[in-house]
Automatic annotation (TrEMBL):
Keywords: Cell membrane, Membrane, Transmembrane, Transmembrane helix. GO terms for cellular component: plasma membrane. Its main location: membrane. Coiled coil: none annotated. This is DUF2179 domain-containing protein. It comes from the Bacteria. Gene3D superfamilies: 3.30.70.120. It is a multi-pass membrane protein. The keyword Membrane applies. It is found in: Cell membrane. InterPro entries: DUF2179, N-reg_PII/ATP_PRibTrfase_C, UPF0750_membrane, YitT. Residues 219-273 form the DUF2179 domain.
Length: 283
């Protein structure tokens, strides 16, 4: 129940921020974007089609053909986000009508930050806003020899060319700036909340610490024999990988059970193997 409530909270916040970034910053300030959103902005300028409804229609075939690649749970959550954000975007544009900020570069920076936070929150909730990432996976599935990054790059190039033809080249320039800021914002959120840490705990009686880590953090540990070269005493070497948001709990466990234990903590750039990446939504 706690996991569900957090997922709903993250999804709601992410959906609202995503809808706000499109309605408040992109549309009034004529800033382009990549993916389905960019195509919808271009079609709105060209044919005056509602942005949210167009986004929804373009996502429908992607979800249909990419359902097996996405997984039932992820597809369901993402589908709810797409429907909700599409409605909110059109509602805001038709009933609120935000004015341009006046400084397009400032609008672009804020659009990148807000969209980055929105996307990070949605990913933590196990969802997304759909888009051309799905089509990229579909193409990759049909043509295994194609590299996914190159597929996504070609899709972005096509969308940016379309944006240049409909909104102008300046919109594409601002869109590229916004995309860069969004990427850095997502990395910052990921590093600040959902990043991983490797911890080494050297102690004499490890069993109680291991039990507490397993029960309270849900993490497996590796236990090795060690010897203190200064004291010439036998010790145990506990190795465990956790997420940054679990670090305070780990320190509390060790300080409570063995205050004399030696603990080191360092960042982890990449993990392969049996490690469940627990995001904010499920901790």
């Amino acid at each position: 129940m706690n996991k569900l409530c957090k997922e709903i909270g993250l999804s709601t916040a992410g959906c609202l921020l995503y809808s706000a970034y499109v309605s408040i910053f992109l549309v009034p300030n004529k800033i382009g974007a990549g993916g389905i959103t960019g195509i919808s902005l271009g079609l709105n300028e060209l044919l005056n089609l509602p942005i949210g409804f167009t986004t929804f229609l373009l996502n429908v075939p992607l979800f249909i053909f990419g359902y097996n690649l996405l997984g039932k749970n992820f597809a369901f959550k993402s589908g709810i986000i797409v429907i909700s954000s599409s409605f909110l975007i059109d509602f805001a544009n038709s009933h609120l009508g935000f004015d341009p900020i006046g400084d397009t570069l400032t609008a672009t920076i804020f659009a990148g930050v807000i969209s980055g936070i929105a996307m990070a929150l949605l990913f933590m909730a196990g969802a997304s806003t759909g888009g051309l990432d799905i089509s990229g996976k579909i193409i990759k599935n049909k043509f295994p020899n194609f590299q996914l990054p190159k597929i996504l790059l070609m899709q972005d190039i096509i969308v940016y060319v379309f944006i240049a033809l409909t909104l102008g080249t300046r919109s594409v320039m601002y869109a590229i700036i916004m995309s860069f800021i969004r990427s850095k914002t997502m990395d910052a959120v990921q590093e600040g909340i959902a990043s991983s840490r490797q911890c080494i705990i050297i102690c004499e009686n490890p069993n109680a610490i291991i039990d507490a880590i397993t029960k309270e953090l849900g993490r497996g540990v590796t236990l090795l024999n060690a010897q203190g070269c200064y004291s010439h005493t036998d010790k145990k070497f506990i190795y465990v990988v956790i997420q940054k948001i679990q670090l305070n709990t780990l320190k509390h466990i060790v300080n409570t059970i063995d205050p004399n234990a030696f603990v080191t903590v360092s960042s982890v750039n990449d993990i392969q193997g049996n490690f469940k990446q627990k995001s904010l939504s499920i901790n």
